[in-house]
């Protein structure tokens, strides 16, 4: 099926299997446990695809985006309820957000420090605008001898969250509207990685311990804010890899999900869920340097994060292909070894990317297929002429 589709398009191409994708949308909505699901745009990077998810089920409400310029772009496209997942400093874009907020758009900026509030306050005054903000509370677990989590928010306890909330209260132009605690060590760490049995056991044990702590921390922060008189529109947590645990917490009102929709390579390695791979890229064979080696044009789309083999794309069709250790996935040439497949020049080789959205930065459009038929062409952010990070 994939090969048939790839043979109908100009290569290289990005291909979306709509059956698998829609199936993922359904499965993810099913696991929401009554919570709202906010879509992580970094893991999608296409307006058309975001719209497809939002229209697929009413569980999907709102977006989590990654840059203020992107928030403005999305608001302009008609989206609303946009949470900026990370603090930012682009004053021009923030000023536009301050003005859009006064005009009735709901965009939340992320804060975890007094400096963030000071900047927003001064921009709101300058524009006669206002900001809605969300406090990011750290969900990492500092186990003895091991820091299990990410280095993002410095707010590690109720006292520091309350202190920041009280600072926000002093501003007439910055309003506290939400709380987010993102448990990256649960959502973004695979615990069923092939040939790593011991590591999987350790990660599973750490995850179990950490999940209990996260639930306590999130509840303590929410209770303290409520007791101090703050009323919040939403409590956000989680990601694809923690949907099944984050959605069981009483205080959580919404879970963020992005990667699960395309289900890239890194999301093959989780114990508690399996979505269907839906996004592929196809490269053309352009040379045959040996009888069992077929060299493709392009392919060096390495994923972000700590670098390792798990960040490299993998050939998936024809089956049993493998990258060469000495060349890997190259900037312009990617040789693949196939012992049992004969390919001609121009034939497609299909790959999966390690992460979800980054590959969209390499292609202008996504060729969408259903069964053996190409049914639609979606633009990526890049295809719309925008690039944010
Ligand atoms: C703040 C935040 N929330 C949620 C997510 C989860 O996104 P995904 O479902 O794509 O793993 C991420 C991913 O990095 C994130 O940074």
Describe this structure as you would to a colleague.
This protein has helices at 2-7, 18-30, 47-56, 68-76, 91-102, 114-127, 158-169, 184-187, 197-227, 243-246, 259-262; strands spanning 13-17, 36-40, 60-65, 82-84, 107-111, 131-136, 141-143, 146-148, 174-181, 234-237, 254-257, 279-290, 293-297, 314-317, 321-323, 333-338, 348-352, 365-370, 373-379. The protein folds into 2 domains: 19-262, TIM Barrel (Alpha-Beta Barrel), CATH 3.20.20.10; 279-382, no CATH class. Helix content is 31%, strand content 26%. The chain is built from 11 helices and 19 strands. The protein is of the alpha/beta class and 389 residues long. The radius of gyration is 22 Å and the shape is globular. The strands form 3 sheets. Strands 1, 12, 13, 14, 15, 16, 17, 18 and 19 form a 9-stranded mixed sheet that branches. Bound molecules: pyridoxal-5'-phosphate. Pyridoxal-5'-phosphate is lined by residues 40, 43, 64, 85, 182, 187-188, 239-240, 256-259, 356.
Characteristics:
TIM Barrel; nine-stranded mixed β-sheet; 11 helices; alpha/beta; binds pyridoxal-5'-phosphate; 389 residues; globular; eight-stranded parallel β-barrel
Tally the helices.
Answer: 11
Radius of gyration: 22 Å
* Structural class computed from helices and strand pairing: alpha/beta
CATH class of the largest domain: Alpha Beta
CATH topology heading of the largest domain? TIM Barrel
Average pLDDT reading: 97
Shape: globular
Specify the helix fraction band: 25-40%
Within CATH, the superfamily of the largest domain carries the name Alanine racemase
Number of domains: 2
């Amino acid at each position: 099926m994939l090969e048939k589709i790839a043979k109908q398009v100009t290569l290289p191409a990005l291909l979306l299997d709509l059956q698998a994708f829609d199936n993922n949308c359904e499965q993810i909505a099913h696991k929401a446990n009554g919570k709202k699901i906010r879509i992580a745009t970094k893991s999608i990077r296409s307006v058309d695809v975001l719209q497809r998810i939002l229209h697929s089920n009413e569980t999907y409400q709102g977006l989590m985006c990654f840059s203020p310029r992107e928030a403005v772009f999305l608001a302009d496209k008609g989206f609303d309820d946009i949470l900026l997942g990370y603090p930012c400093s682009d004053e021009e874009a923030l000023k536009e957000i301050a003005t859009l907020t006064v005009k009735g758009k709901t965009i939340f900026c992320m804060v975890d420090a007094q400096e963030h509030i000071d900047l927003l306050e001064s921009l709101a005054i300058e524009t006669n605008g206002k900001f809605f903000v969300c406090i990011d509370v750290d969900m990492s677990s500092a186990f003895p001898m091991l820091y299990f989590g990410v280095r993002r928010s410095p707010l590690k306890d109720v006292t520091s969250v309350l202190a920041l909330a009280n600072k926000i209260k002093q501003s007439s132009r910055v309003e506290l509207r939400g709380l987010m605690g993102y448990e990256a060590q649960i959502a973004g760490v695979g615990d069923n990685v092939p040939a790593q049995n011991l590591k999987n056991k350790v990660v599973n044990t750490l995850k179990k311990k950490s999940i209990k702590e996260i639930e306590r921390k999130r509840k303590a922060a929410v209770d303290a804010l409520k007791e101090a008189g703050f009323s919040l529109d939403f409590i956000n947590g989680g990601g694809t890899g923690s949907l099944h645990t984050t959605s069981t917490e009483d205080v959580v009102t919404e879970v963020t999900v992005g990667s699960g929709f395309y289900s890239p390579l890194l999301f093959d390695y989780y114990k508690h869920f399996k979505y269907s791979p839906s996004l592929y890229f196809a490269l053309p064979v352009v040379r045959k340097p040996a009888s069992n080696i077929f060299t493709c044009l392009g392919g060096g789309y390495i994923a972000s994060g700590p670098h390792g083999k798990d960040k490299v794309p993998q050939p998936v069709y024809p089956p049993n292909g493998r990258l060469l250790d000495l060349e890997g996935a190259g900037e312009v040439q990617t040789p693949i070894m196939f012992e049992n497949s004969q390919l001609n020049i121009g034939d497609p080789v299909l790959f999966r990317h390690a992460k979800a959205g980054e590959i969209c930065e390499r292609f202008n459009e996504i060729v969408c297929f259903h069964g053996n038929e190409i049914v639609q062409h979606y633009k990526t952010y890049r295809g719309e002429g925008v690039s944010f990070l």
